Amino acid sequence: MNFSTIHTINSIENVLNYMDILIVENKDNTISDLKAILQVLGHRVVGLTSNGIEAIKIAGELNPDLILINIKLNGEMSGVEAAKIMVSRYKIPIIFITVFTKNCLTKSLQLPENAVTISEPIRKEHLEYCISRVLEN
Fold first, then answer.
1. pLDDT at 2 over 50
2. Helix/strand/coil for 18
3. Burial class (CB in 10 A: 0-12, 13-18, 19+), 90
4. Which CATH number fits domain 19-136: 3.40.1440.10, 3.40.50.2300, 1.10.357.10, 1.20.120.80?
5. Strand 44-49 and strand 20-24: pairing?
6. Residue 111 pLDDT
């Protein structure tokens, strides 16, 4: 295999692995971090909102491959409530963004046992791991 063949194979793998992602988050610094990391990982942000009801509408219109959602959002609906509706309606994988640990969340917010969570501040390695975990489920 020569360099050109290897380069072509890597390019095809990158195209096949990129995902369209909806971010549902209300903190500007977290949004900036997520956008930068997702770009480095080769993914595309297709939508952005800080409201649960709007997130449900956008998810239905755009049908993203993955949703990153904060458990606390602007508006009346929490991220957990919005996520439950989106999973039920659209079967889109979800990663919950939080400042808490998963053990606290599973009990207090009734997250499913297999829920994938990422703690703030967001780190590239953690996000990469969470994406791989949510795609396994």
1. no
2. coil
3. middle
4. 3.40.50.2300
5. parallel
6. 73
